[in-house]
Structures are given as C-alpha cells and as structure tokens.
Amino acid sequence: MNDIKIPEVLEPDAAIPADLRALRKFAVLMDEAVAVPGTKKRVGLDAALGLIPGVGDAVGAFMSSWILFGALRHRVPLPKFLRMLFNVILDFALGSIPVVGDFFDFMFEENMANVEILIRHRDRSRPPRSWRRIGFGVAAVLLVLAAISVILLVSMILIVTSWRGRF
User: Fold this and answer.
1) Is 32 exposed, middle or buried (0-12, 13-18, 19+ CB in 10 A)?
2) How far is CA 35 from CA 27, 30, 40, in A?
3) pTM (2 decimals)?
4) pLDDT tens for each residue of 82-96
5) Alpha-carbon distances of 116 from 5, 38, 68, 78, 102, rounded to whole Å
6) What pLDDT shows up at residue 14?
7) Which helix (H) or strand (E) element contains residue 106?
8) Residues of the chain under the 70 pLDDT cut
9) What is the 8-class DSSP label of residue 128?
10) Contact, 101 vs 57, CB < 8 A?
11) Which residue from 18, 43, 63, 102 could staple onto 47, CB 3.0 to 4.6 Å apart?
C-alpha cells in the first residue's frame, strides 16, 4: 500500500522557534479559544473584547500587535508585514462599528491569518532581530494604532453628539 504524505500547511510546533510557538498559541487564544455550541465556529478573546463598547476593539488591536512585533523580529518582508498591519487595522476599524462590528469580530480571524503569514514568510536565512533592534518599528505600529484610536474616538463622539438633538 502506498503511503501518501500530505505536507502540513504550517510547520509543526517542533520546527519553529519558541517565540513563534507562543505567538501561535496567542493567536488561538485571540481567535479560536472557545467552540460555539451547535456550529463548527470557534471564537476567542478578540471577539469578546469587541463586545465592550468604545475600548474593546482598541484593546484587541493593541494585543494583536504582538504578532506584528514578531513579524518585525523575524524579518517578514515589508509587503507581507503591511498586509498583516492592514488586517489588524481592518479588524479594529470595522469591529468598532456597533452590532455590525461585533458580527465582523466573530467572523474575521486576523490573528490566525497574521501568524500564518509570519510563519510562512519569515526570513529563515538570517537570525531574528533582537527586540532592541525592532524598537522603532514597534513604536511606529503603536503610534499608528493610537492615531486610529483617536480618530475612531473622535468620530464616535461626533456621531453621538449629532444624534443628541434628534432623540
């Protein structure tokens, strides 16, 4: 009988560095920690945080940035890194929309997608950068997320104040 071997989509945990294994576990916690009864869907902490009005999606986005920092450390090419950043921003921005955003948070698993991009596209030919060497990139990511937080907060305040006289 022929043994057919199908390659795994992602490397097994034993084949990747410890920090990437931790990021993979973190992504599962954020996106797939709990099975939804009666469905094949799983949800995680990111969807639960998204239910907290105003700040939940911001907290989730800042937590998700840990995977982005891993991408900087493991030398993921800039176009792939920007795709990962876009995934976090998309989840943050759309997740901030009441009701529609909660459904989006439930369906969109940006952390799992970002870890897959990181593991597939990391530069294995060179050692990972030290945490000290990625400080500027970390600061830039945090500033982008903080700016988006301010923009979303101001937008929500303007929307709520414009509705005030109508009800």
Assistant:
1) middle
2) 15, 13, 7
3) 0.84
4) 999 999 999 999 998
5) 21, 27, 12, 15, 24
6) 60
7) helix 100-107
8) 1-14, 165-167
9) P
10) yes
11) 43
pLDDT at 10: 54
The C-alpha R_g of the chain, in whole angstroms, comes to 18
- Is-contact 122 76, C-beta < 8 A? yes
- 75 three-state secondary structure: coil
Residue 39 backbone class (left: φ over 0; alpha: ψ -120 to 50; beta: rest): beta
Res 66: pLDDT: 96
**CB neighbours (10 Å) of residue 89?**
16
Cβ atoms within 10 Å of 102's Cβ, excluding its own: 16
Task: Give the chain's length.
Answer: 167
